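Subject: complex prediction, re-run

Hi both,

The earlier run crashed halfway through, so I resubmitted it with identical inputs.
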Amino acid sequence: MQLTPKKTLKEIAAMISAEYAGDPDLVVSGINEIHRVEKGDITFVDHPKYYKKALKSAATTIIINQKMASPNGKALIFSDDPFHDFVSLVKRFKPFQEAQSMISPSAKIGKDTIIQPGSFIGNHVSIGDHCLIHSNVTIYDNCTIGNNVIIHSGAVIGADAFYFKRRPQHYDKLESCGAVVIEDHVEIGANTTIDKGVSGSTTIGSGTKLDNLIQVGHDTIIGRNCLFAAQVGIAGCVNIEDNVILWGQVGVQKDLTIGEGAVVLGQSGIAKSLEGNKTYFGSPVLEANEKMKELALMKRLPEVIKKL
Amino acid sequence: MQLTPKKTLKEIAAMISAEYAGDPDLVVSGINEIHRVEKGDITFVDHPKYYKKALKSAATTIIINQKMASPNGKALIFSDDPFHDFVSLVKRFKPFQEAQSMISPSAKIGKDTIIQPGSFIGNHVSIGDHCLIHSNVTIYDNCTIGNNVIIHSGAVIGADAFYFKRRPQHYDKLESCGAVVIEDHVEIGANTTIDKGVSGSTTIGSGTKLDNLIQVGHDTIIGRNCLFAAQVGIAGCVNIEDNVILWGQVGVQKDLTIGEGAVVLGQSGIAKSLEGNKTYFGSPVLEANEKMKELALMKRLPEVIKKL
Amino acid sequence: MQLTPKKTLKEIAAMISAEYAGDPDLVVSGINEIHRVEKGDITFVDHPKYYKKALKSAATTIIINQKMASPNGKALIFSDDPFHDFVSLVKRFKPFQEAQSMISPSAKIGKDTIIQPGSFIGNHVSIGDHCLIHSNVTIYDNCTIGNNVIIHSGAVIGADAFYFKRRPQHYDKLESCGAVVIEDHVEIGANTTIDKGVSGSTTIGSGTKLDNLIQVGHDTIIGRNCLFAAQVGIAGCVNIEDNVILWGQVGVQKDLTIGEGAVVLGQSGIAKSLEGNKTYFGSPVLEANEKMKELALMKRLPEVIKKL
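This time it finished cleanly. Structure:
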């Protein structure tokens, strides 16, 4: 998320009553979670395991729970609870805006786009030309829909990321400040859900077709001309390259990549990155011909045990 | 469900034109299915296999399809079709009330609670303070939502239990007279569905977070601070204790218990109760380290078969 | 889909500027995809592998991408891109009609049928008597609902078939011209989705009960008195006979048949037709007792490997 207007290090630190190391006039131009940071951004880190990653990231300002000297050209803000302070900044810069109507006056709707009755279009949503939004669809604030997009009834675009921090007595929520971007010629099935990014954009690439009842997690990026059958579930921060086909009820864990042209058969479970241009099957997934061999061998188990 | 006003045994028997054994002035104060009966309740039993359970239950009055003497302090109502007569009583005491508006005038909405446009709030629903109900949510009659609850778009709270009795030519529906109770600080994902109890309350414990497209069946009770990822499916009458984590697409069969602190990995299938504080994987589920061993052994099958 | 008024071969060929072989005054009375053609229909075929099937089908007129003599009593229309020309005819005969209100004035609603607020009823929808349509349901144009049907909130009836043709740079969509037919005494769960047929009708047989979050693909035909638990996914063009029970999260691939009275246990994956009156389990599915034996044998693998 970009900050408009931009802030200085000194101003940000004052908002959360924190000490800092670095140039007080350093400009903070955006606020983003560590997976999607750019130069000028403020982010946070709260575990020594990730200190190095955060300090070496593109982020310019880091909220951190250990005092140390600030690295070259970066600034540090010291906090006992960086997660809490980061969330409080997100809430301050992006407060929830209650809707006054089913279609926000601030939404931009392109020409020849049809929005059927009963659909909710949030604040600052942008929808391109020649789209068809069926009834009872929900599009949360700040999402962007391209041209020639079809969204079927009951789909929910831009609900909050499922991202919580365990505390001793409860879970704390990381407020999402990202959105969803749906590119041109995409079709979204009925009752499919696509969560917003926690800081960047969950993205559905041009020409991709999603069937019904699919889940796409926060910050996941899906390439062009993919085809996902019904009830596929994709966790957060996944990268799916172009021309990937996932058959029904496939599950994909977070933080991995599926290579271009991969095909994954129904009900498979994907827990690690997959190379492109291969066919996969099983839970956990194997290359399909390996899995088929394994299934054939299992049929010979009675014979094996008899022989022993 | 409580009866207001209370009825006598004699009055209830007259409603279904049935004979009875017991004190005609015995008070019937509630009507509940056998899983959730309390003292003063009327319930039903229609198979000899369950007679003993029903007669020993907390229920005070039992509709039963065999004449017998009534046990101490209890009453029996004799019926050729206890299921049918039970359902007719439920329909009489809790008839469906057609809605006149998107938000029922009888609903109680707490302070600082936001209800986005397009959401339906049924009769006698109670929603606490500081809640955020996103657009196109449906909350059926009589459900109770605590404080600081977030419900995302398309979620359906309180649809009927999926509970049918097989007849020779069709299925008969057990009318639900229960509701859903969602405690404080719960978050419910987009297009998630939580069915009402057939007599008691399907309950989501305080601090629990549900992701998108999850199914929770009737009369299931979920503890505090649980975390369920997208597309988890939980059948009816399940008890899930506190701090349980279910990853994506896990399936849970009816009438079982998952112990406190259990973690179940993605796509697992749970057909029997699980002890707490362990990690599980597989369909059917095993302890995760056992399942991992099994998967490793299966990789050695070609070698085994070659050796023989 | 029936054509009203009917057209002649000559008129149809002119609409897509194509040459043809056959009687120019031959009557074209319907337009349907090859799976559901009847006498008088026009259909298309674009791959030599399916020429024979198309030429021997009940269809009277076939759009085909190879010049040949027309078979007895049939007509051929020659096209470089039969898929494209077929779709353009469908769009011409069945253009999308934008809705003007939540309940179309052209919808027929039977007596004693309740439609709760927030539901969308499309053009030319027909709903029988004594139905209960809960809030935030969507029923697309031309669907037919019988008597005594209950549809829970968020269900989507009649969204487009998920049916695309791969082109070098994108996917082309086959426009659906079919609908959904729901027979008497059916119950449809919350957020369940049932797609329309591409040419015929996706059909839910009398007395069948569907739980929440189920997907039913285009042109699938489900028999009478079936019972499907939550999150079941059924692809397109499946035939499910009467009295079939599918437990939670079962997946069914396209173009197959499940025989009468079959029972399939939770999370099973069905990739080929199943005989009736048996119980099945596993992904891929086996008869349940075979699968149980296999699971028992797998438990003996450590012993087997030790012995070798």
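Chain C has two domains: 2-93, 108-292.

- K.
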